[in-house]
Amino acid sequence: MRDIIYFTKKRNVLVLDQTLLPFKVKYVEASNYKNIVNLIKKLGIRGAPAIGVAGSFAAFLALRDIPKKNISDFHSLLIERLSQIELSRPTAVNLKWSIDRFREILNTNHSLSHRRMLQLFYKEAKEIYQQEKKVSIKISNFGSKLFSNKDKILTHCNTGSLATTGPGTALGVIKSANKKYKGIKVFATETRPLLQGSRLTVWECQQSKIDCTLITDSMASHVIRNKEINSVIVGADRIAINGDVANKIGTYQLAIACKYHKIPFYVAAPISTFDFECKNGEMIKIEERLPEEIIKIKGSLVSGAKKVFNPAFDITPSKLITAIITEKGILYNPRKSVIEKFS
Ligand code: MRU
């Protein structure tokens, strides 16, 4: 597979539109920042680290496309555009992390011309891309130590090469474990309502020759008990300094099921997913998405519900988490005193 996002020779951006996967592999060209904002909103590109990278490419386009009349004093318009990009998905902190890096460049190089600033933005976007790639390789390698031959691993949502610029976080760990050990079996939840598990994780597992079984989200506890799952591993969209984790809706119930069945519950995430300004999970803003995602399937109505609740993420309390796997190592029993050291 080619990279999920990259610059063309004209420095436009090509993005793999994940809404069409697994049956259509199609790249769309983004020639301005709004194209990328729209792709992020509709989950054409998704997964916290990938959203951060997409935001950085959008920041470059937002600066490049400043109208001529604003070019001598481009700062205020750019600041407004950076905020629009940051708000395109509110829970994944990687987006804020990445946009803050461009704000920092803007502030520390205030007197630079538009042309020189654009060079710095281009360099930064490429740097963020490469950094997330290296980090996901490290996470994958560190995390694989937690597994053994014949392990049965359950995972949720998609946390692989479609969600990062490298092998992935949780799915990257699984890929690495699958290379090291014999007989690894993966159970992937379909991940309602947008099916990141059944469409994307299953596709990636097939490409990486991983033995993968698809289940619906509501089967998870039954499968944990009856298929003797050894551990559950997921990614994260935002981690508070007390270790509470926001991740795809359905994660919390998996952590509770792990506690009950006395098996480890692992989270794999880069340090860019830690929000050092966020004290605990209650402070995390959970994105709520449109009812149509639940009451329609492939554009057809499947429910007459008048009231629908569609939170995209939930919060798993740190006390249910066995360890968080980062690029700097494995944090067992994640809590404030350990996490703060990474800020
Ligand atoms: O709504 P999505 O598909 O962006 O949600 C993705 C997740 O919840 C992932 O688990 C998380 O972003 C980590 S991706 C490495």
Write a concise synopsis of the structure shown.
This protein starts with a strand and ends with a helix.
N to C succession of SSEs: EEEHHHHHEHEHEHEEEHEHEEEEEH
Q: Report the total helices.
A: 11
The share of residues in extended strands comes to: 15-25%
Placed side by side, the strands forming the largest sheet appear as 6-5-4-7-10-14-15
* Major sheet attributes: 7 strands, mixed
CATH topology of the largest domain: Rossmann fold
Q: What do the pLDDT scores average to?
A: 97
SSE layout:
Blueprint: E1 5-7, E2 13-16, E3 27-30, H1 33-41, H2 48-64, H3 75-86, H4 93-108, H5 114-144, E4 152-155, H6 170-180, E5 185-189, H7 196-207, E6 211-215, H8 220-226, E7 231-234, E8 238-239, E9 245-248, H9 251-261, E10 265-268, H10 292-295, E11 296-297, E12 300-301, E13 313-316, E14 323-326, E15 329-332, H11 336-339
Parallel strand pairs: 4-5, 4-7, 5-6, 7-10, 10-14
Antiparallel strand pairs: 1-2, 2-3, 8-9, 9-13, 11-12, 14-15
Helix pairs in contact: 1-2, 2-3, 2-4, 2-5, 3-4, 4-5, 5-6, 8-9
5-S-methyl-1-O-phosphono-5-thio-D-ribulose is lined by residues 43, 46-49, 92, 157, 159, 163-164, 169, 196, 234-237, 247-248, 312.
